[in-house]
Amino acid sequence: MRYRLWTLLAILLAMPVAAGAQILPLPTLPNTGGVTGQVGQLVPRVPVDQVLQSATDLAQARIDRLQTLVRRNPDRIALDRQGNPVRAGEVVLTDPDDASIAAAQAAGFRLIERDTVPGLDIGFARFAAPRGMSIESALKRMRKAAPDREVSADPLHFASGGEAPAPFTAPFFAPAPFAAAGARVGIIDGGVNTQVVAPPVTQTGFATGAPYVNDHATGIASLISGGSGVRAAALGSALYVADVYGRDPAGGNATAIARAIGWLVTQQVEVITVSLVGPANPLLARTIAAAQARGVLIVAAVGNDGPAAPPSYPASYPGVIAVTGVDGHDRALIEAGRAEHLDYAAPGADMLAANSGGRLVAVRGTSFAAPLVAARIAATGSPAALDREARDLGPRGPDRIFGRGLVCGDCRTSRK
């Protein structure tokens, strides 16, 4: 029976979505045996039928969530060929010159804006495609008009965690904050309620209506600097918050995140935490590489869409520190996504954070693991120190489930 369940799981993870949901296909997995093995290792003490149900439910939930988003915002959001939500009717050129701008306009595109990522000298231009043209057709036409430039859609990124649905029971860890006085930590997310988290906090917006306070961003900020009863994982750090969502239903797009990274570079931030996930994007890849070249460390969550989801970005970009989450018993979260590489695990469940109203709430997701790793980097000043303190979990040595081990295991604020 167990063999048949694993075989069925392999088939479900490898097969495309049924005809009724073809606009958002699951990825084709070339090595399904490896995937099922990976899912099994993620939850070694969970019955196999629960693993099967969770993996398929996560995959379907992602499909349903993104399709609903498009239905509610058809004029703002569309799906590309891979099923990723993008800004509807928009195409982006990276490092455009006057000739490529003119060629795009001659091809029927309308220039929305031409700008440069602050502090990094990376140019980009956003264009509106001809009315009624699909994203794929617009990309094809733009690549023909500007063959020597990087052309892409403007994909959206989503938070990888939220308030837990039910109370939890977990071991209580004595407060053990880590001092990071003077360190500057950047957060790319929504807006933060500065009255809830410990000061100092500087924030600005990169979307319509931003900064606009939300629970997810405030929770992440509270885990780093403390406040409202949450212990600080990087006590004394200064937070720099870039709101890439505001009130825009198409917020969290790649151009907003690129601008946010550039702004954080100009603020001399040493480490940036990003608890958002989306597909690969050339402008964002260039921006991250440029920030890294200036010594900025970027930490990102692997997401919560499960091992059947496509690899998450920015966690999968080279050099980005990719983080997964564990529960209060050091078990990897069953919903944890995947990236092209994995560096560390950190607490991501059976924990408390502050919401935007200042109330302590239970949270769950790899979203809340990433800021703890960023906090430890801020406190130690180097990822190399994390390797020395990381506690090995799972198979001996680095692995694809826990990376190089558990970091900040005693940072969790949990109920007594």
What does this 3D model show about the protein?
- This protein is of the alpha/beta class and 416 residues long.
- The protein has three domains: 2-72, no CATH class; 78-152, Alpha-Beta Plaits (2-Layer Sandwich), CATH 3.30.70; 158-411, Rossmann fold, CATH 3.40.50.200.
- It has helices at residues 2-14, 32-42, 48-72, 98-106, 135-145, 215-225, 254-266, 282-293, 370-380, 383-389, and strands at 77-79, 85-87, 90-94, 110-117, 122-128, 150-152, 158-159, 162-163, 184-189, 201-205, 238-243, 271-274, 276-277, 297-301, 321-326, 344-347, 351-354, 360-364.
- Strands 10-11-9-12-14-15-16 form a seven-stranded parallel beta sheet, with helices on both faces. It has a four-stranded antiparallel beta sheet with strand order 4-5-3-6, with helices on both faces.
- It is globular.
- The protein starts with a helix and ends in a 27-residue tail after the last helix.
Ranges where pLDDT stays below 50 over 5 or more residues in a row are 1-52, 170-175
What is the radius of gyration?
Answer: 21 Å
Oligomer: single chain
- Helical run tally: 10
Q: Roughly what is the average pLDDT, rounded to an integer?
A: 85
Classify the fold: give the CATH topology of the largest domain.
Rossmann fold
